[in-house]
Design brief:
Helices cover about 15% and strands about 35% of the residues. By secondary structure, it is of the alpha+beta class. The protein has one domain (about 5-200): Fumarylacetoacetase-like, C-terminal domain (Fumarylacetoacetate hydrolase, domain 2), CATH 3.90.850. It is globular.
Length: about 200
């Protein structure tokens, strides 16, 4: 499987990092070695002094697709979860300043926290999902998928023009405003509505 991650998919998040609002989805990849599941601990890497959380709703791709049409895009994901796109912000800023790709700041080991997945039919409205992140018991990020710039279907259509989607792939759909740093000893807990989806201790 692969992780397809979307950057700057909420207007306020783009603004908080002083980035322009994109006209098309911004796509980057994380390898399977980035996955951190089953509420396992995250170990702070030695190459960064500024690891930041980015909480995101995640889609699970359920079948292979290339050049997916808008009419059928909604049939290409079957479940929804919650994740964190950990970002080495200092590394990213250095790479961006030199017009280099982001991968070292985004694709490192265990940089993609993922919860268990909920079948999409079990959610009242997949297009209006309230989600949040608590850091040491305090809510630090809140979002709703209705505020995304590009919908799930638009992301699937656009991505599949360039990259074949395969069963089991994960699509991280972007983060809302409120990203911030983590420190050793922190406890991060993600929620969809009132349902806790994951917990992650920083070590």
């Amino acid at each position: 499987m692969k992780i397809i991650a979307i950057g700057r998919n909420y207007i306020d998040h783009a603004k908080e990092l002083n980035n322009p609002v994109p006209e098309n989805p911004i796509i980057f990849l994380k390898p399977d070695t980035a996955v951190l599941k089953d509420n396992k601990d995250f170990y702070y890497p030695e190459f960064s002094q500024n690891i930041q959380f980015e909480t995101e709703v995640v889609l699970r791709v359920c079948k292979e697709g290339k050049h997916v049409t808008p009419k059928f895009a909604s049939t290409y994901y079957d479940a929804i979860g919650l994740g964190i796109d950990f970002t080495a912000r200092d590394v990213q800023q250095e790479l961006k300043a030199n017009s280099l790709p982001w991968e070292l700041a985004k694709a490192f080991d265990h940089s993609a926290v993922i919860s268990n997945m909920i079948p999409k039919e079990d959610l009242a409205d997949v297009y209006a999902i309230d989600f949040s992140l608590q850091q040491n018991g305090q809510t630090v990020q809140q979002g709703n998928t209705r505020d995304m710039i590009f919908s799930y279907e638009e992301l699937i259509v656009y991505t599949s023009k360039f990259i074949t989607l395969r069963k089991g792939d994960l699509i991280y759909t972007g983060t809302p405003v409120g990203v911030g740093p983590v420190a050793i000893g922190d406890l991060l807990e993600g929620y969809i509505g009132e349902q806790k989806m994951f917990s992650c201790k920083i070590k």
